[in-house]
Amino acid sequence: MKPQFGLYFLFSVALSVTHVNSADLRTFTNAQGKAIEARLIGAAGGQATIEMADGRRFTLPLTALSAADQDYIKKAASAPLQGKASPNDKLAVATVNEVAGQPLFAEDILWSASAVEVAQRLSIPPESKTKAASSYRSYTKEDYMMFGAHPFSVAMYAEEDKVTGFSIVFANKGDLFSAKGSGAMHFDKDTPPAEAANIVKKAMDKDLAAISTTISKVLGEPQKERFGEKAGRMNMQRWDWRGHAILLAEAEGEYVGLQIVTTAFADAGGKVAGTSDTIIRARALANLEKRKSGDLVIGDIPMVDQGPKGYCVPATAERAMRYLGIPADMYVLANAGQSGFGGGTSVSVLLEGMADQIRSKRRSFDSWQGPLKLKDLNKYIDKGVPVMWALFSTKEFNELANKRTEERQTVSDWASWKSKVTQEALTNSLPKDTETGHVVLIIGYNKDTNEFAFSDSWGERYKERWITFQEAEKISQGRFYVVGF
Fold first, then answer.
1. Residue 381 — φ and ψ, nearest 5°?
2. Closest residue by Cα to residue 415 from 382, 450, 445, 453
3. Could you tell me the CA-to-CA distances from 192 to 334, 335, 380 in Å, in that order?
4. Which candidate in 230, 256, 270, 405 could, as Cys together with 357 as Cys, close a disulfide (CB 3.0–4.6 Å)?
């Protein structure tokens, strides 16, 4: 039977294999009361890795387990996630940091280190912080080097201030042909040269060889493994050191990427057990903010900064997926979405490419076309679920949204505000510009003032902006997508 990796499967199947070492096994129970027998491999960053009797390993959030199991794991797994011992474990920290090219490692392994402290020593600024998770990302300068090559993006992920992993992206067809600026300026970009594909291939080949050679000189020849799930599953070169797995991958014609994860997670092939709908529904509802102004806004949505390239679709999709407990990376999603040089990802192609991954985690996916209507949005927003909206993000639109959002911060008379924005909506001219195609998350609305809130993948500064339905309709592409439950 083909393996299945959802929590429902883990806690529903009847095990029929012989226990290899029954003394190590215990009964784990999920939040719905279903039980399995497995042994604890370890825990770090709000996640636990367990091994079933037949040898399969899964990493799952601690919150997916019963309160008693969570207490047991926190007490029993004082050591971070560990995998098989490696001959490289005897190498000194200074030696491995020389390979990394940055002060990445310390005597305390990453999984027990403070994420804030690791980010500071690597000069990676914060990208996002939610109740349980945080991320840090740097789009580096040209002289910044790691593992023998220049990374365009260095991202670190954490839960409860404990590092859970790194995603480091080197030569790739997005950043190599990036725009002249970040945020709204990313639309102002040079025309990619005709020889773009050849340029990307040469840059990727150079980085892949440099990274592999740099690491192999000290950590030895890599193991060849498969890692990831569904469309994101890739061939990897793997090196281990003191509980860290360094994974190097090449997505042909797309990017060279390096991940640093726990060796236990790597041993499990990068498979993450899904979180049940019951838990996700409760989390989503808890994130709704009802304000005195009448605004209803979804909070705690992770930010992903797409940087100076046209990755609004994969970055926005990553935000929606991570918000609902689905691991995602915008570079992997851009690969599935067949993005162009410098960006220009197809919304429909990308979402079709990630549909299997969404459904494998027991999440739903909805889409529709039509005008902007509150009745279509509030059935999702009221559950704490954001909506992806395709629009034309013109200069005039951004200027208006920025102005309106700033003015809202000092409003005390919301009846007068409603009258003001209603009148302005009748006269404001917002021409469409098909060169400014963009995707954002709709995250809230105000029924009384006929406005809604949206969030761009351009960093914290663009986390929440406001516009009226009438004005937004003028630049809307009329396409909407929802990752839900």
1. -55, -40
2. 450
3. 17, 18, 38
4. 230
Q: What pLDDT, on a 0 to 100 scale, did the predictor assign at position 194?
A: 56
Nearest by Cα to 303 from 188, 102, 151, 157: 157
Question: Which CATH number do you get for residue 303?
Answer: 3.90.70.10
- Report the distance separating Cα 174 and Cα 50, nearest Å: 37
Please tell me the total count of domains within the chain.
3
Cβ atoms of residues 187 and 436 within 8 Å = yes
Return the number of other C-beta atoms located less than 10 Å from residue 258's C-beta: 23
Residue 396 has what pLDDT? 96
List the structure tokens of 183.
Answer: 């945020």
pLDDT of 246-293, one tens digit each? 999 988 878 899 999 988 888 888 776 666 777 788 889 999 999 999
Q: How many CB atoms lie within 10 A of CB 113?
A: 20
DSSP-derived secondary structure for 228-264: SSGGG-EEEEEEEETTEEEEEEEETTTEEEEEEEEHH
Structure tokens at 193: 């040269």
Instruction: Say how far apart CA 262 and CA 270 lie, in whole Å.
Output: 10
Model confidence, pTM: 0.74
Q: Which candidate, 436, 467, 427, places its Cα nearest to that of 449?
A: 467
CA distance linking residue 102 with residue 324, whole number of Å: 33
Specify whether the CB–CB gap between 20 and 29 falls below 8 A. no
* 20, 139: one domain: no
Residues 6+ apart with CB under 8 A from 248: 208, 211, 212, 215, 222, 236, 237, 238, 256, 257, 258
pLDDT tens, position by position, 403-453: 999 999 999 999 999 999 999 999 998 999 988 889 999 999 999 999 999
Structure tokens at 197: 């594909």
- Computed on alpha carbons and rounded to an integer, the radius of gyration of the chain in Å comes to 23
Residue 82 in domain: no
Determine how β-strand 296-298 pairs with β-strand 465-468.
unpaired
Domain-located, residue 81: no
CATH number for 28: 2.30.30.700
d(CA 270, CA 228): 5
**Could you tell me if 103 and 97 are in contact, meaning their C-beta atoms sit under 8 angstroms apart?**
yes
Give me the count of residues in the chain: 485
